[in-house]
Backbone:
């Protein structure tokens, strides 16, 4: 099963690269994967085989149309159409990793309570570059449960500087 996800990720990567705008498509796919993971109803609908394929694909087009590039819409629609919607987040994460590897970078998933502005994103990327010794591509996820601060995930490494984490540490020490 994992090999098939790798094959889909490689194919999507090659298509996105050939169509141009790989970085934009990669970012849009990453955001869609996080939305899919966070929205159980959407995930269930896109993976429900009792819902006709055309309806699932139309839903993708309604959700992404006008907000994402046509390449992104087509790629997500394709994966949903071939019945791999359940694996979409994993496939997309593998595509993002392939794109970062090609740029000789590591991917840092950054979770914050509020969107970062360009200056904060740049400073955070610089700090992660220094901490890891690698060039880091920052993929941002807005997660209100963080409360404040930042959680950074780079491969298997988690750097938790969130207020929620600090509160949990304080609660344990009391």
Residues:
């Amino acid at each position: 099963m994992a090999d098939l996800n790798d094959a889909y990720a490689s194919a999507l990567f090659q298509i996105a690269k050939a169509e141009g705008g790989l970085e934009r498509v990669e970012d849009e796919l990453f955001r869609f994967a996080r939305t899919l993971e966070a929205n159980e109803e959407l995930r269930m609908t896109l993976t429900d085989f009792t819902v006709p394929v055309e309806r699932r694909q139309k839903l993708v087009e309604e959700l992404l149309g006008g907000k994402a590039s046509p390449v992104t819409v087509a790629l997500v629609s394709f994966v949903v159409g071939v019945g791999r919607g359940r694996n979409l987040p994993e496939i997309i994460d593998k595509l993002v990793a392939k794109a970062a590897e090609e740029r000789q970078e590591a991917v840092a998933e950054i979770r914050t309570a509020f969107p970062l502005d360009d200056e904060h994103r740049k400073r955070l990327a610089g700090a992660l570059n220094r901490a890891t010794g690698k060039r880091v591509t920052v993929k941002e996820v807005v997660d209100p449960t963080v409360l404040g601060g930042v959680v950074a995930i780079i491969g298997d490494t988690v750097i938790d500087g969130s207020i929620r984490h600090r509160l949990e540490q304080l609660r344990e020490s009391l």
Remarks:
- The beta strands are 106-112, 136-142, 149-154, 157-162.
- DSSP finds eight helices and four strands in the chain.
